[in-house]
Amino acid sequence: MKIIVCVKQVPNTNEIKINPETGTLIRDGVESILNHDDANALEEALKIKDRDPKTEVIVLTMGPPQAREMLEECIAMGADEAVLLSDRALGGSDTWATSNALAAGIRKIGNYDLIFAGRQAIDGDTAQVGPQIAEKLGIPQITYVREFQMEGKRITVQRALEDGYQVLKTTMPCVLTCIKELNTPRYMSIRGILKGAAAEIKVWSAEDIGVNEELVGLKASPTNVYRSFTPKPKGKGVSVKGDTAKELAGNLLAELKEKHII
Ligand SMILES: Cc1cc2nc3c(=O)[nH]c(=O)nc-3n(C[C@H](O)[C@H](O)[C@H](O)COP(=O)(O)OP(=O)(O)OC[C@H]3O[C@@H](n4cnc5c(N)ncnc54)[C@H](O)[C@@H]3O)c2cc1C
């Protein structure tokens, strides 16, 4: 069985810096980590490998050369192989173009049974890439997976909803996007760290995966970023006091009138 896990290197910060000219994220000089949901996606693939050691787990990312470090960590956790899609031609890709590149990378890897992704990246935050990959590969998808079971080629999952969950069944191959409730990601092992450091990571260019400027990069990206900014913190709130509901309502009314809101 072959499982591909899409993993993204993200800045380890809530204070995302934005290039004011292009409206894209500035990643240089910011500490980077494996996206949280992707660690859950990798863990679920590794649990399948624990049960069946013949399972092959391949991690795939699109990113700058520094993403290699994250891939080494994935191998240290237990992944067998890693592929890095890295090329200037891929820079500036929005989610549509990113999923074109990742789907092309997945097609080149070939013969996959399962594709795991995180639900959402903590930087881009769109939760679009997993579903777009499934659409482009023409295979089923289930998002927000919080519990996973597999019997032969049949899969049963719990898909999280705001107020409960759905039980959904599908068959392989399919794309599943994972959330943190699914599992607890394992730590890297010492042996794994040595394996990761020595691993030969495949680096594929846009040409290697057969995509061009009509499919990837800034020009191919239909999303235009008009303005990106960190919202200013809101001012201190006002707490209205009162011993009874009637008194509270009266004091609130007085406060609103004083400020000429009503
Ligand atoms: C006009 C425009 C230009 C942009 N230019 C750049 C740029 O130059 N460089 C840049 O890094 N970003 C750029 N971005 C941001 C980029 O589009 C998103 O980071 C990327 O498409 C993923 O979207 P997301 O972060 O919302 O991922 P989500 O959809 O929230 O991610 C869901 C899951 O998909 C998988 N996934 C997402 N991205 C990747 C990836 N790269 N590799 C492997 N798996 C992945 C992961 O499993 C992840 O958990 C640009 C965005 C726009 C709109």
From TrEMBL:
Database matches in Pfam families: ETF (PF01012)
Names of required cofactors: AMP
Gene3D superfamilies named among the record's database cross-references: HUPs (3.40.50.620)
Superkingdom per UniProt: Bacteria
All residue ranges annotated as the Electron transfer flavoprotein alpha/beta-subunit N-terminal domain in the record: 22-213
Classification via InterPro entries: ET-Flavoprotein_bsu_CS (IPR000049), ETF_a/b_N (IPR014730), ETF_b (IPR012255), ETF_beta_N (IPR033948), Rossmann-like_a/b/a_fold (IPR014729)
Signal peptide, first to last residue: none
Family statement drawn from the similarity comment of this UniProt entry: Belongs to the ETF beta-subunit/FixA family.
Protein name, as recorded: Electron transfer flavoprotein small subunit
UniProt source species: Anaerovorax odorimutans
Lineage summary: Bacteria, Bacillati, Bacillota, Clostridia, Peptostreptococcales
Gene name linked to the record: etfB
